[in-house]
Amino acid sequence: MSEIIAAISTGRQPCAIGILRLSGEGCAQLAEKVFSLKSGTPLREAPDRKLMSGTLYDVKGRELDHALAVFTRGPGSYTGEDTVEIQCHGSPAVLAAGLEALYRAGARPAQPGEFTKRAFLNGKMDLTGAEAVIDLIEAQTADMAANAAAQVGGALVRRLAPIFEGLTDICSHYHAVLDYPDEEIPEFRLSDYRDALRTDRDQLNWLRSTCERGRILKQGVRITLVGKPNAGKSSLLNALVGYDRVIVTEIPGTTRDTVEEYARFGRVLARITDTAGIRETEDRIEAMGVERSRAAAEQADLAIFVCDSALPLDDEDRQAMAAAREAKRAVAVMNKTDLPQRVFRVQLPFDPIFSVSATRGDGLDKLCAWIEETYGTDLPCDGSILTNVRQGEAVTRASEAISRALAAMDAGITPDAVLTELEAALEALGELTGRTVREDITNKIFERFCVGK
User: Fold this and answer.
1) Does residue 297 share a domain with residue 226?
2) What is the DSSP secondary-structure string of 323-392?
3) Is the pLDDT of residue 245 over 50?
4) Residue 178 lies in a domain
5) How do residues 126-135 score in pLDDT, each as one tens digit?
6) 404 and 348 inside one domain
7) What does the alpha-carbon distance between residue 281 and residue 241 come to, in Å, rounded to a whole number?
8) Angle at Cα 280 formed by Cα 278 and Cα 282, nearest 5°?
9) What span, in angstroms and rounded, lies between the C-alpha atoms of 115 and 22?
10) Nearest to 232 by CA among 362, 348, 327, 323
């Protein structure tokens, strides 16, 4: 019998409704010690999945709140066990007192992600679905939520299942012929499986190709603003995020460290970093900021070189241009177009180039539209996009193992050596879905969850 766990499943801030969640055999009987139905019926006898009104009591037996409770019997619940959820007013004091009463009645505090971990262990979802739960909670765009919701529903494991089953069939056929030579089993010929293995490898390679898009979908496009002091980088950041995130003055070198903020461009989430102006300086603190600026540019998906187009280009601009071009992609922004122009497009080695006035907002719509068009995705957010490193590594190992198996077949190596590679692919896919994952990896995954989920 599993222990009964309890936690607050809603936020700790005041809200309209708060939820106390319990899971484990006997949780309805335990909940009866702190919650009584208005009808007088014991909660354990309540209809399955029906919200019932009643009263919640504290550890001293005082009425704490008029609340609702629902009893869901296993295995039809989220965790696969009997569960109870008590819905009360979302006062932090009420929730804390109700949780204390449940602990006093015999429940123990749930660990981070323990409800979802029990769902995984009880076969209610595979590991990709469990990981997608936290992605769904943390989703900052509709696309991310749609992809995560599909994975919670098993979309990714359904895509992988035919590959896993096909590899299993190959291995089982080989071992059946080897172990039962006198039985009437069809002859095992590796060549019969060559086309299927190539298809499996291509499918896995396609999945692997979604990792970068998954990172952008989940974490946002990494955009770094690069330029000399007073080019208008901070003004541009403030304009893109829609409020005064960074202090702006006419004094060069106001920004001495990287400043990060999120912004949305249509369906695209971006993580924009404002940086210290790039120039030679003897100020030790400012020099550290300049080094961080260069590092941020190197790590960016997109570097935006910002120049003061009302001043001629100088060595500091050229240093900033060189830093921007270290990024995966770089574009230029000619800022301060509301002033007489001293910089011309032919002087800037970038494509595209945008003319803007960060203080007035002129030209920002074209920059924002380009970011959305460039980093938006045509990939269906149907659960097929990989969104974490663990999944990407497992798919990569499986694909590489199948590639080695195909190479061994072409080289005429004995079937047992080929099957060793296919078994390695099966192991990697098993880790991805949770069929063969180690306990330490499982624990690490669920540590990312909040308590109560």
Assistant:
1) yes
2) HHTTSSSEEEEEE-TTS-----GGG---SSEEE-BTTTTBTHHHHHHHHHHHH---S--SS-S--SHHHH
3) yes
4) yes
5) 889 988 998 9
6) no
7) 29
8) 125
9) 9
10) 362
